[in-house]
Specification:
The chain is mainly α and 260 residues long. The protein contains eleven helices and two strands; from the N terminus they run H-H-H-H-H-E-H-H-E-H-H-H-H. Helix 5 (118-125) crosses helix 10 and helix 8 packs across helix 10 (212-223). The longest helix has 16 residues, at 225-240. It is globular and about 55 Å long. Ca(2+) 2 binds at residues 129, 178, 181, 186. One of its GO terms (biological process) is hydrogen peroxide catabolic process.
Length: 260
């Protein structure tokens, strides 16, 4: 659940209400973000043991860390104490989360707007070593309608397998973001990019786009898997230290789906 606009303030967990449309139905999130019931269960257990003590924002941060560790990555000390947002913005999520067809310049701008560097962008993109994406998000890869990446740079066997997977015209069909080791947190995401097997345009441009800096980082992570794991830990710490837009005006929700 890294696709959140307002930072680690649990805005993405809020369900729609009569007064606003939440971020769950934003284009980058709809039918892609999953596992909300897992957060619900964790929150329920914590509320039973320590009522209104651990925020949903902190639960998300800890769950992100633990999922990386359980999948083979390195752990880090999660910075605790964030408050939960009192609202969410579907419009802001649509406008500020980079789309799956983004080029390097767009990706860099979106990350820099949050105080994160080009290096952080390439490193945090490595989270795509686990997870899945809908056919709708990479359809341009199948039809050669994408800017910045040509299908001539795409592995032919990989392309044919995706075309077959998505041939039923079901845009909700899921494909692994990393088809080599889809459940392991490792550097194979970057290996895939050099093989022309990046699922999303925004993945593949890191290796075969027009930016030598991103290509160099990808190559470094292919050559040195431990460098990626260490850098990912550090970039997650950096992202976790960004000031939340809610400041001190948030709350600790009792139910992560609704404000108190």
């Amino acid at each position: 659940m890294l696709n959140v606009f307002q930072g680690c303030d649990a805005s993405v967990l809020l369900d729609d209400t009569p007064s606003f449309s939440g971020e769950k139905t934003a284009g980058p999130n709809l039918n892609s973000l999953r596992g909300f019931e897992v957060i619900d269960n964790i929150k329920a257990d914590l509320e039973y043991a320590c009522p209104q003590t651990v925020s949903c924002a902190d639960i998300l941060s800890i769950a992100a860390r633990d999922s990386v560790v359980l999948s083979g990555g390195l752990g880090w000390q999660v910075q605790m104490g964030r408050k939960d947002s009192l609202t969410a913005s579907k419009t802001a999520a649509n406008n500020n989360i980079p789309g799956p067809n983004s080029n390097v310049a767009t990706l860099v701008t979106n990350f820099q707007n949050l105080g994160l560097s080009l290096q952080d962008m390439v490193t945090l993109s490595g989270a795509h070593t686990i997870g899945k994406a809908r056919c709708a998000t990479f359809s341009s890869r199948l039809n050669n309608n994408n800017a910045g990446v040509s299908n001539s740079e795409m592995n032919l066997d990989f392309l044919q397998s995706l075309q077959q997977l998505c041939s039923a015209n079901n845009n909700s069909t899921l494909a692994n973001l990393d088809d080599m080791t889809p459940s392991t947190f490792d550097n194979h995401y970057y290996v895939n990019l050099l093989l022309g097997k990046g699922l999303l345009v925004s993945d593949q441009v890191l290796a075969t786009g027009d930016d030598d800096n991103t290509r160099e980082i990808v190559q470094n992570y292919v050559d040195d898997p431990s460098m990626f794991l260490e850098d990912f830990k550090n970039s997650m710490l950096k992202m976790g230290s960004l000031p939340p837009p809610t400041g001190t005006n948030g709350e600790i929700r009792v139910n992560c789906r609704v404000i108190n």
